[in-house]
Every structure is written in structure tokens, then in C-alpha cells.
Amino acid sequence: MNGLMVFSTVSEVSILIPVAIILLRRKYLSTELRILAAYVVVTLIRNIFGVTSDILYFIEPGRNFHTLFYYNWHSIIGFYIIAFLYFSLIHHKYWKIFIIVAACIFTFFSILEIPSGSITDIRTAFFNNYTYTASSLLVLVIVLAYFYQLLQDLKVENITKFPYFWVSVGLLFYFGGNLFVNLFLIKAAKTTTQMSWGIINSALSILFHLTIFLAFWYSKSLNKTQQDE
Where, by residue number, does the polypeptide cross the bilayer (predicted)? Predict the structure, then answer.
């Protein structure tokens, strides 16, 4: 097992950090944080397949255990959960309409993945051609719209203790970084830069999981913020 695979495995195991805090803070979870918890659960399921694959690869080097199918579906299901989360958080009706339209557009791109077999063949060796980039672009726009709402409302006394701030920061870094990676994914996979994008993806995942941890960590302070509103 090389260093890159170890780092990748560590990044997947790091999902247990937000899982642990969800269990500890479960009585403080708002409706929106429960939606975020659903995203964490979906990611946990995906990562279980990934870590299992890494362990089996270590036992039997060179064998392909076909986990791309689960990663491809995670990109689709994950987008809908995030879109639903921000549909609940954003109050402006035009941005709500935008999220609905964005979900419809994303559904169209998801359907385009069917001919390649990336979401229909459990043994697929192909990444989705469209959903990774589409989800990154759409999520970035939605998150920026939410940040604009926060700046307009000015209802949060201490933004560094506001759960949805940390969720949004994590999403900006994760999807912003992955947008760059995914634009060059196919090319990178065929060159010596494969290690570079593998490290970037793993580092972004760890950072994202830490920001989600902070979101749930400050879930108790959310009650006070909502009362102040």
C-alpha cells in the first residue's frame, strides 16, 4: 500500500469525525442539521466501500474491486441533499426557484450518465462525465447566494459559532477545489499528475469533514441564535 493510498484511506476514515459529533450532539440538531447528517450518512456508506476496497487491495494487490459506481452515485445523491439543505436555509423566493431549476438541470446531466454505464454498471471503471463538474458549479453558486443572505440579514452575532457558516465554508473549499480537479480528471488519470489530484481530493475531503464537525459542534449555540432572531 503506497503513501497516496494510505492518505486516501485516512481521508475516507475521517468521515468518522463528524459521525461521532452527530451522535454526541444529536439532541441539538435542527431540521437543517438533520439534512446535513443525512449527507454524512451517505458519505459514510460510500467510504465504507472505499476503505474496504483499500484493505482488500492491500491483501490482494493488483485486483480491481470496482468502487467507482458508489462514488458516482454519491456525487448525484449528495447534490440533491445539499440542494435540499439550502432550499431550507435560503429565504429569498427567487433563489429557491433557482435551486429547483438547478436540481432539474442536474437531473438532466445525471440522465446523460446512463449510456456510459457509470451509474448503471456496478463494475464500472468510469467516472461520471458530467455530474462532478455540474454539482461543483451549482453548489458554489447556491452557497455564495447563502453567504449573500447572511451579509444582508446580519442576524448572526458570532458567525464563527454559527453551524451553517462552517457548512458553507467547507462546501466552498471542497467543491471549489474539486471543480478544478474534476475539470482535469480524465487527463490527469492518464498522466503522472494522478498523484497530485489524488492528494488534493484527499486533503479537501479531510478539510470538509473538519468543517462539518465544527457545524455540529456549534449546534448547541444555534438554539440561542434562533431565539435572538
Answer: 6-24, 36-59, 71-87, 94-112, 132-151, 163-185, 197-218
pLDDT at 82 over 70: yes
Residue ranges per domain, the chain? 3-223
| 171: exposed, middle or buried (Cβ count in 10 Å: 0-12, 13-18, 19+) | buried
Residue 188, pLDDT score: 52
Torsion sign across C-alpha atoms 178, 182, 184, 189: positive
CA contacts within 13 A on the Cβ side of 44: 13
pLDDT value of residue 54: 84
The architecture CATH gives domain 3-223: Up-down Bundle (1.20)
Predicted structure pTM score: 0.91
User: All 3 cell numbers of residue 107?
Assistant: 437531473
Question: At 171, which helix (H) or strand (E)?
Answer: helix 163-183
DSSP assignments along 135-158, one per residue: HHHHHHHHHHHHHHHHHHH---S-
